[in-house]
């Protein structure tokens, strides 16, 4: 037995079964009952809202031998022939593939002959906005003086593309997006017929995912049922099949952000990327998560407004007490901005990292322009020379970069150093305590004059002084670099503005190395933040 998709199997065959378009159904049945049928109808609305379904029912109703209350009887020969698609007097045309003048001329010639069966010749033209200008003009001539036995039903998702001359000759009906309640009720009916048991929540989730389209909702339900054939359809199974995100990870991430833990949040991001999550999708999903949290925080009955499992609701409620609504709104704003930027960005990861830092470090939001500028420079990739923008916003560093800006390095940074810098965040992330904090604020540099393969680690904080002549610290860093890159490198640690090396320059990573080694930004901590 061949399988019929649910949306075909359960396509309504009478007006009573059409859901969510009562305003249209009532008008049409009244017209049929009182024999006031028009000659040209225009059905507008988004996909899956029932336009072609209603068009077919209308075609049957006007031709039916014994209409019942304005609806087709579905029993007479005419109804059966139209239902089976064998009736000669109901012609369906897809304007997407038949959009030329000749296609419409053909119709004009046919129109002059009376229908051989039934009362009306009905032309259903789907996607009518696809017709060429010439075709529209040809159609217009027919619409101006249609024979009494001809009826046109034009359907479109884009009414604004229909010429006004055509619009003015049609009765226009706007199909609404179908509400979640209406879709859910219909899905329930069909599940009963199919003998599938399902949790109410599962059904509502599918209805919601249909986004106003009954057809989409039915297709999604089909997928879910096919995946768990013969089993009860639970909310969790639906989430799994429809690829809904695991909100637990968002909960984890948000808690890190609330704690102001930059490194922790970046690690979670890293896990997500390793797990194959697409970043634009992630940004959208996380924004939605925070939106849910805001609803939990501000509404009386959040359970009714949000589709999450009871466990996740518990987490949300817990989190809602951890932060103020204003803070949450700031988070949402930053991530909404991000979702606009990220779509066409090449360095998506860097953008997300910056956004996470912004969330963790409110004070940084105003001085992040320098970081964004760096990003712009990276993306333009026009300057081969070391990046001149400061890597830190501290006043001390501005002086250093100013000197660096005056003198372009004579030699490019050695490849080994570039590789180290490309993985700098990962390398420094493996140290601990105060050393880690100092390293994460440091700027890796090289001698731009000689280009010798020595890594100068320039601490931006004077507290870094304690590591400058510390052989153990140096050894620790060297060992991590060997483990990470396989390179042994000479290291010299120094404190910005307290050393005599005037030729030091920032290390720019070549595109080729960037492409081969995972690209990381050095995370800047808020300079005003007291050290733990
Ligand atoms: Zn009939």
The neighbouring-strand order within the major sheet is: 2-3-4-1-5
Instruction: Classify the oligomer.
Output: single chain
Mean pLDDT: 82
Number of strand elements: 9
Task: Classify the helix fraction into a percent range.
Answer: 40-55%
| Rounded Rg | 33 Å
> Strand pairing plus helix content: what structural class?
alpha/beta
Task: List low-pLDDT spans.
Answer: 383-406, 518-532
Biggest sheet character:
5 strands, parallel
Which ions and ligands are bound to the chains? zinc ion
- Estimated share of beta-strand residues: 5-15%
The dominant shape is elongated
Distance between the termini: 70 Å
Task: Count helical runs.
Answer: 26
Explain what you see:
The chain has 532 residues and is an alpha/beta fold. The chain contains 26 helices and nine strands. It has helices at 6-9, 22-33, 51-63, 77-84, 101-111, 133-144, 164-167, 180-194, 200-209, 214-227, 235-241, 247-258, 262-274, 279-298, 302-305, 310-320, 325-342, 348-360, 369-380, 395-406, 415-422, 424-429, 433-441, 465-468, 471-485, 511-516; strands at 40-44, 90-94, 121-126, 150-156, 171-174, 443-447, 454-459, 490-495, 504-506. The strands form two sheets. A five-stranded parallel sheet has the order 2-3-4-1-5, covered by helices on one side. Strands 8-7-6-9 form a four-stranded mixed sheet. The structure holds zinc ion. Zinc ion is lined by residues 64-66, 72-73, 75-76, 78-79. Zinc ion (ZN) binds at residues 64-66, 72-73, 75-76, 78-79.
């Amino acid at each position: 037995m061949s399988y019929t998709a649910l949306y075909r199997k359960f396509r309504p065959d009478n007006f009573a079964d059409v859901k969510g378009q009562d305003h249209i159904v009532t008008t049409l049945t009244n017209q049929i009952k009182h024999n006031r049928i028009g000659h040209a109808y225009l059905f507008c609305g988004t996909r899956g809202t029932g336009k072609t379904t209603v068009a077919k029912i209308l075609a049957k109703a006007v031709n039916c031998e014994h209409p019942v209350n304005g609806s087709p009887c579905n029993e007479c020969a005419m109804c059966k022939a139209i239902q089976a698609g064998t009736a000669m007097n109901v012609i369906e045309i897809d304007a997407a593939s038949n959009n030329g003048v000749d296609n419409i001329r053909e119709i004009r010639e046919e129109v002059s002959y009376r229908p051989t069966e039934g009362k009306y010749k009905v032309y259903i033209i789907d996607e009518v906005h696809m017709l060429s200008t010439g075709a529209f003009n040809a159609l217009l001539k027919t619409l101006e003086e249609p024979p009494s036995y001809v009826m046109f039903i034009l359907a479109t998702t884009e009414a604004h593309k229909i010429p006004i001359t055509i619009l003015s000759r049609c009765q226009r009906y706007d199909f609404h997006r179908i509400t979640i309640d209406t879709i859910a009720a219909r899905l329930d009916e069909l599940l009963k017929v199919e003998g599938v048991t399902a949790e109410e929540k599962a059904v509502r989730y599918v209805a919601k995912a249909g986004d106003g389209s009954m057809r989409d909702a039915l297709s999604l339900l089909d997928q879910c049922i096919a995946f768990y054939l013969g089993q009860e359809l639970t909310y969790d199974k639906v989430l799994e099949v429809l690829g809904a995100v695991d909100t637990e990870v968002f909960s984890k991430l948000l808690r890190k952000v609330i704690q102001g833990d930059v490194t922790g949040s970046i690690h979670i991001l890293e896990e997500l990327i390793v797990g194959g999550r697409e970043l634009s999708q992630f940004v959208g999903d996380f924004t939605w998560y925070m939106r849910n949290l805001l609803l939990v925080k501000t509404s009386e009955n959040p359970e009714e407004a949000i589709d999450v499992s009871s466990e996740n609701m518990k987490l949300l409620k817990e989190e809602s007490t951890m932060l103020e609504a204003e803070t949450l709104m700031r988070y949402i704003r930053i991530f909404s901005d991000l979702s606009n930027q990220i779509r066409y960005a090449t360095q998506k990861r860097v953008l997300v990292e910056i956004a996470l830092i912004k969330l963790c470090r409110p004070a940084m939001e105003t001085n992040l322009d320098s970081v964004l500028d760096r990003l712009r420079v990276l993306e333009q990739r026009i300057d081969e020379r070391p990046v001149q923008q400061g890597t830190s916003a501290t006043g001390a560093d501005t002086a250093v970069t100013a000197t660096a800006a005056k003198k372009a390095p004579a030699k490019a940074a050695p490849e080994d150093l570039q590789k180290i810098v490309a993985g700098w965040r990962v390398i420094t992330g493996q140290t601990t305590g105060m050393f880690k904090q100092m390293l994460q604020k440091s700027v890796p540099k090289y001698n731009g004059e000689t280009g010798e393969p020595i890594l100068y680690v320039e601490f931006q904080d004077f507290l870094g002084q304690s590591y400058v002549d510390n052989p153990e610290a140096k050894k620790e860093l060297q060992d991590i670099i060997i483990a990470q890159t396989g390179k042994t490198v000479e290291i010299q640690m120094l404190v910005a503005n307290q050393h005599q090396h005037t030729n030091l320059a920032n290390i720019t990573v070549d595109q080729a190395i960037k492409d081969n080694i995972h690209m990381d930004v050095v995370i800047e901590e808020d300079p005003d933040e007291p050290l733990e």
